[in-house]
């Protein structure tokens, strides 16, 4: 451990981490991840089931040679019967890559929420069709909030329709976000006519069906990160053009990909660097599982900003 270990908490991260800086950093990381010579080392997440308590602990290490950043995120996700108030908690460890010594510990909540939403926004920027009138969000937890925030900032939606399993949570969501929301009584009602759909639930069975989707819509499928969990039905998975963050991750961790047998068309990073096309005239699905390299470059960005701020103070 370093002589002086830095701790950066969620409040300070909120102040330091700007979407306008995060988006280009993540785009570069996605492209590097999908390049032979991108300098990214990232094993597929190791996930330990904690069956007695209905939970999972994920370990997510990565190294980016181009950013000279070495990070591990520890993330726990527990289903509803847990005593914790939130289903996800995370801690990010930043190491000095020259000697492997731990330099900083960061709260992982804001990092996870912001980088996940930013990656969905990048996928949408590349894969959206011409119309961007209606955004639909299925789910009303912290990921729903972070997606609402960046999507309403980056795109000119006229309406945001939201559905979640419990009315209470959607009402809380509507009070939390800083703009208008149309609360829907069913997932189907929320999805009809939407140009972009985001699924951010803890569902383990499909909640989104291909027959509801407007042709040409883009879907960011963010939940269902276990090989036997689903958010999307086979009809949608098989009829859409399927993009993933990591092919290796998707065929190991995504129930929507594994159980539907859908064919992966490209990694998002391949689209960003221009080696695979964005098929904008068809319905597209971006299956996001979350990658350690996203946490790595985000943590490095935060640490660099933190150092500048602290030098200015002294
Ligand atoms: N792809 C990525 O990079 C990441 C994905 N995630 C995933 O995003 C999802 C949302 O995360 P949070 O907002 O933190 O979770 P959360 O647990 O706080 O919220 C989940 C929402 O889904 C709803 N829900 C729960 N079970 C459901 C079911 N069976 N059917 C329909 N709705 C249900 C809840 O009512 C709630 O509105 C989770 O699946 C999580 O694992 C989270 C972080 C990163
Ligand atoms: O990337 C991530 O942090 C996670 N993906 C699914 C659960 C947490």
TrEMBL record:
Biological process terms in GO annotation: thyroid hormone metabolic process
Reactions the enzyme catalyzes: L-pipecolate + NADP(+) = Delta(1)-piperideine-2-carboxylate + NADPH + H(+); (S)-cystathionine ketimine + NADPH + 2 H(+) = (3R,5S)-2,3,5,6,7-pentahydro-1,4-thiazepine-3,5-dicarboxylate + NADP(+); L-proline + NAD(+) = 1-pyrroline-2-carboxylate + NADH + H(+); L-proline + NADP(+) = 1-pyrroline-2-carboxylate + NADPH + H(+)
EC number(s) given by UniProt: 1.5.1.1, 1.5.1.25
Primary location: cytoplasm
EC class: oxidoreductase
PANTHER family in the cross-refs: KETIMINE REDUCTASE MU-CRYSTALLIN (PTHR13812)
Protein name: Ketimine reductase mu-crystallin
Organism encoding this protein: Chiloscyllium punctatum
């Amino acid at each position: 451990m370093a002589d002086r270990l830095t701790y950066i908490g969620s409040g300070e991260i909120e102040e330091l981490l700007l979407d306008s800086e995060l988006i280009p950093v993540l785009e570069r990381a996605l492209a590097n991840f999908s390049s032979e010579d991108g300098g990214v080392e990232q094993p597929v997440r190791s996930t330990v089931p904690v069956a007695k308590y209905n939970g999972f602990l994920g370990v997510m290490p990565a190294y980016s040679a181009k950013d000279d950043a070495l990070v591990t995120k520890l993330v726990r996700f527990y289903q509803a019967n847990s005593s914790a108030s939130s289903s996800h908690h995370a801690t990010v460890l930043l190491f000095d890559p020259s000697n492997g010594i731990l330099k900083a510990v960061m709260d992982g909540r804001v990092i996870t929420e912001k980088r996940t939403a930013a990656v969905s926004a990048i996928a949408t920027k590349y894969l959206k069709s011409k119309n961007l009138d209606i955004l639909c969000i299925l789910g009303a937890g912290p990921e729903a909030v972070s997606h609402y925030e960046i999507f309403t900032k980056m795109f000119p939606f006229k309406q945001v329709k939201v559905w979640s399993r419990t009315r209470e949570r959607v009402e809380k969501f509507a009070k939390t976000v800083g703009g208008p929301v149309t609360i829907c009584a069913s997932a189907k009602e929320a999805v009809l006519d939407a140009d972009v759909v985001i699924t951010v639930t803890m569902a383990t069975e499909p909640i989104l069906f291909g027959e509801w989707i407007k042709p040409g819509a883009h879907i960011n499928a963010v939940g269902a990160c276990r090989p036997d969990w689903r958010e999307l039905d086979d009809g949608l998975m098989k009829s859409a053009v399927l993009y993933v963050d990591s092919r290796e991750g998707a065929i190991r961790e995504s129930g929507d990909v594994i159980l539907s047998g859908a064919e992966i068309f490209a990694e998002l990073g391949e689209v960003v660097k221009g080696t695979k096309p964005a098929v904008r005239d068809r319905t597209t699905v971006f299956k996001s599982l979350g990658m350690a390299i996203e946490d790595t470059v985000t943590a490095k960005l935060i640490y660099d900003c933190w150092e500048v701020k602290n030098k200015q103070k002294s």
